## 1
Amino acid sequence: MSSEPAARLEPTVRPPGLLLVLSAPSGAGKTTLSHRFRAAHADAVFSVSVTTRAPRGAEQDGVDYHFVTPERFAAMVAEGALAEWAEVHGRRYGTLRSTVQSTLDAGGLALFDIDVQGGAQLKAAFPREATTIFILPPDAAELERRLRGRSTDGEEVIRRRLDAAHEEVARGLASYQYVVLNDELEAALARIEAIAAHARAGLAGLDDPAAAAVAARCRRGEADVGGWKVPKGA
Ligand code: 5GP
């Protein structure tokens, strides 16, 4: 019989990575929140989506999006290269499966700025690893003010965007795990941080009581939705 001491058991399994999904109607302040979150988490990967829309302003290929032709997008769908995809405002957008896979393999954190249809698909495919957060603008009047403020488009285009934004809010309030009202930037950021910390702790089999308490107050059904109407049955 060997007199060697028994080898100590070290955990060899890394906790699974966290797929943090942030969705919002345009005009909710999601981009600012996403940038602030990334600045505070140097290790977080931002999922660069594939899209068939053209670059806008200073957007760079491979940084803001991977800009592709509709044919290339269709080929990627056929190859199974996308973990989710959806049509938004007549253009296609999708998440690279490789981004999801490398995050899960590394036990890292990836941030997804995708629409509610895509968020629902990721949650269905990765029920444990994906956490969905819906960001609400302070109120409907502020949403309209922001949409008008950033647009030089005509009334009809603005109306269409407003309708789409209201539709997105209804879907988010009906299906996402967490709802964060962006009435004040720092407070909204702190809530997103707490939800992420709570989710990461849960994946590692740990508890972070302070984060859990904040996250509990952001759960759909519990969250402060300001003046927004929660759809029946949500
Ligand atoms: P924009 O064209 O203004 O950059 O984005 C329009 C919408 O598409 C936003 O709601 C954005 O979150 C969403 N989006 C961006 N990338 C993806 C993606 O990979 N998948 C899905 N489903 N939506 C996306």
## 2
Amino acid sequence: MAHDQIETMRKQIDEINLQILDLINKRAALVQDLGKEKLKQGVNGFDPERERQMLNLLVENNNGPFSDNTVRHLFKQIFQASLDLQKDDNKKVLLVSRKKKPEDTVITVKGVEFGGAEPIMIAGPCSVESYEQVRAVAENHVKRGLRVLRGGAYKPRTSPYDFQGLGVQGLEILKRIGDEFNLVTISEIVTPADLELATQYIDVIQIGARNMQNFELLKAVGRLNHPVLLKRGLSATIEEFIYAAEYILSEGNTQVMLCERGIRTYEKATRNTLDISAVPLLKQETHLPVFVDVTHSTGRRDLLLPTAKAGLAVGSDGIMIEVHPDPDVALSDAKQQLTIPAFNEVLDQLLASGLYKGEAAVSRR
Ligand code: PEP
Ligand code: MN
């Protein structure tokens, strides 16, 4: 008999549980609708005064056996869970995300498709040092059918006493050579004040790793109608990298490409640690073209070819690599730049691997 009584009471408790469940879900749905209505009217979702009123009403009507404190605690949990639901509903879908735009962004510059059907090689010296130096690389580009030339005119160096770049003079050299050889030029700009001028000289503005979270620079570049290559910050998470790109798109500039260039870890065998999984991840999460800079990530000539192959194999839209006519006397990154013959050897190996098809056929229309 006693046993039957326990069973009956348990059944009653089950019944009440289900009623509570039904009620809190009904409540949650109502809160969701309210949230949508508030959003429409531009009213803030959370109203602390309203929450206070609800708690007071509950405590006033509390006949126990729960204490007032327990009632407050229980209902605060319910309020919070409903509010969290509202937040999920209102969570902004990022402009850079695949959810927002399922199809790939393709950026076409001088007939070169960044993020198009075939991967692109972005190559050139670390720094623009002279017309002759850049011209030597450009002539090889033309011989090898390459279309994209990089070179730094403003160099964000670790030490203020190191070569800082030729500045506008460097941009002028890039402009002259870009026009002469019909090459797409890429160069880093480090301050908003130089952006307008830079758009007249170079085809793609690079935002370097050290400036990935320079939000004023990101916003300023976002207000341009000019292609941008954004490099991953020295220790930036993927989320921070994606938000940095979102800064640019949020200001209206949709011509953004990303570049994985290695991140700082405890490993010292390479200059940085190339985060290869970042490539498929960024391709999944965003619709932007993704490149892999093998020079700054590894800092080692012997690793450029295998890491370039890896980058292409995991779906990158191209590779960035530094090449200099005489790396031993380069004014920056002397240790890791390739000579022109060594660069051509890497190119041959990549072509032989089938991962890279070259650009002459795909882009010179
Ligand atoms: C560069 O590409 O010239 C450069 C300085 O790279 P990062 O910003 O990735 O260090
Ligand atoms: Mn460099």
## 3
Amino acid sequence: MKPFCLVVALSVVAGACSPSSTESTPVAAASSPAAAPQSPRWGLVIHAGAGNFTLADLGERREPMRDALTAALMAGHEVLKRGGSSLDAVQAAIVILEDSPYFNAGKGAVFNHDGKNELDSSIMDGATKRAGAVAGLRHIKNPVRLARLVMEKSPHVMMVGEGAEAFAKEHGVTFVPESYFYTERSWQALQRALEEEKKAAQKASGTAQLQVARAGAYFGTVGAVALDQKGNLAAATSTGGMTNKRFGRVGDSPIIGAGTYANNESCGISSTGHGEYFIRYSVAHDICARVQYKSDSVQGAADAVVQGELKTAGGEGGIIGMDHAGTVAISFNTTGMSRGYVGEDGKPVVMFTTEDAGPIGTR
Ligand code: ASP
């Protein structure tokens, strides 16, 4: 399967990737590639999960998914357009995706091995390096809102399980019954994973379960990165984790530096994929560190990690990112990653796989 990366300049076209695996297109008419960036171009980039899927695999879900991704982009764009913060923009985009049944976050969260949903999320402010994260939530409608509250209303960065939900109660967060997270698709995905796991049981080693959970998976985690008019970056990620995960398992999405990272001196990143690898390779922070300390482009850094060491290690997935000049980077080593971006022109672009990586603005 061909790896894929994309660089879009909301300010300047970088054109960092090799032609076999990339696309390089300006969202806004900008200065020539050689010119220095002028004032940062604000904008938003989102993902809704990576996996080895084709457009055909998405079937009739594709258009409602496109609608939800477009709505998420436009919600974030509205915030940015009126001068709102990148934190508000990424939160607005993610709440829409969490409320949709089509993604593995909020409403559409996948089931763990015990048939329960455990939700994780994180958010980071690139201006202050403050961050908030939550994991193992069972009753919170919009985990990203709670992550934001942990960042802003607690002295902590990360809260989990019952403690996080008790904190949520104190802050008037919306609770839902566990049944709210039931979707037939996620339930059937668990049944298939359990079946495969049973079949594989004789040969099973300690790692067999997550491999089963991963097989053919459409990950579906959601994430967003934005740059606002003041030049501040923010990133956020929200997930139900991986189908058939063990009770209590936490992936990369709520881990600052793995699933989410934002730093005005470098970039903002949101990851999606096989979380254990993203944690071990500190993917989001590694990309930003390369930008900050090696002066790599955000796309170059993302490719070095996602198409390089992560892929070599067997870590499937991808990232979306944006640097402090508004340059968007997208890189994934699977066949698909649902994704989209919008710049100052307010024209949303949504794509799903390597197949529809055509010119910007085409469907
Ligand atoms: N990274 C998430 C996790 O491992 C899953 C995903 O991105 O789909 O929990």
## 4
Amino acid sequence: MTVHIATNGHLSLWCMQRTLVLIKPDGLQRRLAGEIITRLERKGLSLVGIKMLQMDDQAIADHYKHLSTRPFFPEIAAFMKSAPIIATCWAGVEAIATVRILCGATNGRTAIPGTIRGDLAMSVQANVVHASETPEAAEEEIRRFFAPTELFEYPDKGLTLIYSPSEGSGRT
Ligand code: IDP
Ligand code: MG
């Protein structure tokens, strides 16, 4: 277990796991961006990067390469570039798995109530958010959407109220 304590004795964003959350075109247009960000903030995750952008064909092909042979790929590609998205990067202990749980199952109709998709989505495709699935995916996806200078590591005083001093499991 890696302990998230900086030399000054405080829990530190520097050594916490990071994950990417995209607010998809449906989330933006349904005015759900604030709701989604609020849920992640209230859980205790730390916002370390945020930007609005419109994905192009190359970014979509890279981001959804695991689905490129599926019959519905052209539909997802058209959906993801139909309007801007909001890309966010969050830090926290075991942030990747925690955020996937908060998002819920891919299909909004069967996602458990209480999750973002369970509460806010009725579709498999238009399911409001994307969240990284693995440490490898998170690293690649964060690099796809953010330059190093667009990610912030700051002394987050809230961490001492959110975690115990020795809590943590390393960045990845
Ligand atoms: P995830 O977003 O829960 O990780 P993935 O299987 O990685 O789900 O699929 C990526 C995205 O592709 C989904 O969030 C959804 O928008 C879309 N998608 C996945 N499966 C289908 C499908 O069967 N029909 C239409 N769209 C799909
Ligand atoms: Mg996925």
